[in-house]
Amino acid sequence: MSENMLHAEQPQSIVKVLETERTFCRLFTLEDFERLYALHSTPEVGSITIDGIQNETQALETLNHFILHQAQYGYSQWMVYEKASGEFMGRAGFEFRQIDTTIPPQMEIRYAFFPAFWGKGYATELAMACMQWAFQMVNPEMIVATADPKNFASHRILEKIGMRYVKDIPYKDVLDVFYTVTRADFHARLGQNAPE
Fold first, then answer.
1. Domain at 3-189: CATH architecture
2. Given Cys at both, which of 82, 108, 118, 187 links 192, Cβ 3.0 to 4.6 Å?
3. pTM listed for this prediction
4. What is the C-alpha separation between 159 and 179, in angstroms, rounded?
5. CA 174, CA 52: separation in Å to the nearest integer?
């Protein structure tokens, strides 16, 4: 990814969907193809995400999916930027889909960052903010997550934000780990009463 793409200046009118102490999120647009392709074609990223290492065609399909998902559900994967540097860090947000066929489709939390931002607490910080946003703005009964069985760092993040391991679950001919948290359990963890 070029230095200009990493440090691309954001328009003053940009709408921040979500903000944390060190990061902020905005919606994807078609103009963001090169950024998403750079992320999804990075081997270290693709090897541990459900999207895999993507070519240009696959990355464009994914971008279109994110944009359409936002229009349909009011949430999706969002672009993530580091406040201090203005760098594009990766993506985070939610997807509504059926992972476990024994329960109805659910909001799934997902995230992926360039390796330069691994191990610095960004994923935990942002994942917690995403969960708080979802339970406040969408108020689902449950949020779910999947992760590569060998991606122990992601397992720890999911546990830090209040999710619990349920079982291994098949996806694309491999087994992923499946985590869930109910609205009541999440608010109990924060010492809050869950909204009705």
1. 3-Layer(aba) Sandwich (3.40)
2. 187
3. 0.88
4. 9
5. 12
With the C-alpha atoms ordered 133, 149, 112, 110, is the resulting torsion angle positive or negative? negative
Question: How far is Cα of residue 177 from the mean position of the Cα atoms in its chain?
Answer: 16
pLDDT digits (tens, 9 = 90+) for 176-194: 999 999 999 998 987 766 5
Rounded distance between C-alpha atoms, residue 157 and residue 26, angstroms:
22
Amino acid present at 1: M
pLDDT digits (tens, 9 = 90+) for 110-127: 999 999 999 999 999 999
What is the phi/psi pair of residue 113, to 5°?
-130, 155
DSSP of 127-187: HHHHHHHHHHHT--SEEEEEE-TT-HHHHHHHHHTT-EEEEEEEETTEEEEEEEEEHHHHH
Residue spans per domain, the chain: 3-189
3-class secondary structure, 21 = coil
